[in-house]
Design goal:
The termini are far apart. This protein has helices at 30-55, 57-75, 79-98, 107-114, 136-139, 151-164, 169-174. It contains seven helices and no strands. Helix 2 packs antiparallel against helix 6.
């Protein structure tokens, strides 16, 4: 009868299966550091690009208006109206940019004022308004008979003047 009863062995105390600790999210792996750095760089570049685009909005507006004047003048040959419109555009841009009373300037004082963005350049043509194609803007809007003018050079000069304008003083301080 003893053979029928199994031998009682001492019971083994078994422990549960040990799982490893969960993977920690910190410290980040090298790939995640690269992703974070790229995200910061892309954000900074995007913010700077948007700021630059907004700061130069007055230039884009001026260039669009200049293109409109140029398109209108392609169908007409009225130099008097051309000079008046260009003078108005440049005065408007100057008032927006410099925020000082420059609308009352006329004659040589107006041309000298328009030459300001070109004084920084060390080129022989840094007085294009007072000595070049822009001379017609001094008294042209007030004359009846205007001599032939080089419209292509005048449009090129006005386009260059608008592009050469630095940031307005208010925006220069915040940039």
């Amino acid at each position: 009868m003893n053979d029928m009863n199994p031998i009682k062995q001492p019971s083994l105390i078994l422990r549960d299966i040990h799982l490893p600790d969960p993977v920690s999210w910190w410290p980040l792996a090298l790939g995640w550091w690269i992703v974070v750095a790229l995200a910061i760089i892309v954000s900074a570049v995007t913010i700077l690009a948007i700021r630059r685009y907004r700061q130069r909005g007055y230039r884009r507006l001026g260039l669009q208006q200049l293109a409109t004047i140029e398109a209108d003048m392609a169908t007409q040959d009225d130099h008097h109206q051309l000079i008046q419109r260009l003078s108005q555009l440049l005065r408007h841009m100057a008032i927006l940019h410099y925020q000082q009373p420059c609308a009352g300037l006329e004659g040589q004082a107006w041309l000298t004022f328009l030459d300001q963005p070109f004084h920084k350049k060390a080129s022989p043509n840094n007085h294009p308004f007072s000595e070049g194609a822009g001379q017609c803007l001094s008294c042209g809007p007030y004359q009846r008979d205007i001599p032939e003018i080089d419209t292509i050079a005048l449009f090129t000069l006005c386009r260059r003047w608008i592009k050469e304008l630095p940031l307005p003083p208010k925006q220069r301080r915040s940039a």
